[in-house]
Amino acid sequence: MLVRFKEILDQIQKIDRDIEDLRRLRARVPENRTFTDGLLISFDKQINELLNRKISLEELEIEKPSAELVQELFSVDVATSTRIRADRITIPGVAPTAEEEKVVAFLREMPKTEIHLHMEACISRETLCGMLDKNNVPYEPAEIEKLYKFSNLQEFIKLFLFIIDSVKTADDFELIFKNLREYLESNSVYYAEVFLAPSRMVQNGLDFNEIASILDHLSTQCRRDGGPEVKYLFDVSRTFGVENASKNLQRILNARASNIIGIGLGGAELMGPAREFKDVFAQAHAEGLRAVAHAGEDDGPWSVRDAVEILGAERIGHGTSAIQDPSLIELLRTREVPIEICLTSNLFTGKYVREPQDHPVRRYYDEGLICTINTDDPEIFNVTLTDEYFKFYRHLGFSISELIDLNRQGVYSTFHPDPASLWKKAGAQITKLRDKYKL
Hints:
single chain, 439 residues, alpha/beta, TIM Barrel, 8-stranded parallel sheet, 20 helices
């Protein structure tokens, strides 16, 4: 059945009105009442359902639209117009031109920081097999290869859990850290803040203090050897609930490892609203730990707002759905909350972004938000930090100067005690590289 564009446009606008009405009603729910949390969750689920319906309409492709129609499309909803696809051309897999090869070489050598990177997802096939061999765990190489060639979210989760469950002893982290260092050095990353999710490992019988001690030593030794500086943010996962998150925080505080600098709220976003972890984050702040949160990756903009306003998150991981709420964009800008952008990861999960050029980071940057470029899960998604920078250049129209500025924003978004000193050294190297490649 043919559907006229006007009918689709009317549906999108009606959904917008319904969402706005629901948000107004949600804002009127009294605080600190016995029914508050349950009612807020009901509102959020209904709003999320409407947003998903809206996204499915916006993703309908229009063949060879007129200029007037494209203009009308992009005036529908300025907060989400980047998701509307009108005969756009995607060129993944196209080999770089000679000029782009020069850009790639420059980006590879450019000194960088990375602040949204999961240690478990830096484990290569070779390192995974090395751990299995070390621990006398039988496996078929073909099965390992098959695991890494996942094609959907369930297969991705299967691989991630297999990797975690393959860590049998604390000294396995010597192999894991070696793999991490190789990745960082191959991408000219000189400073990194790395996530680690200990919950399942502890459940599998590993000793938290032993893990923390080994990682602390490896990080210090790496820095003394002239390698990258690595700090850790331990996950207080939504997936395992508030009580487990609190236990992980106590473990961090008891471990007293100098290179463990904070906590991050990760796990299944829809399973644990940020507000439930308010007390955990309040204690972390009181104890001098830094605090970040994954938000807006699999849930709506309210998830980002709660992470900032209730948890006091100092950075937001992903934040893809924030584009849906202009007032939230203003909040992030005025409070100068950095967004940890993970382009390839967002494309794979596909909740809010399906094409590279539709990612909201272009809008975020243009509207003055602090943005940083990261990989999230490099070995699992078969991507490097250099790749991510190049995708910003090719698909999102970021110039070399803008990429350097994003690099600078990444440095100043770290929890390093003196980011200015980091940038002074990196900036001087970047200037020389730019002259070298005539960019």
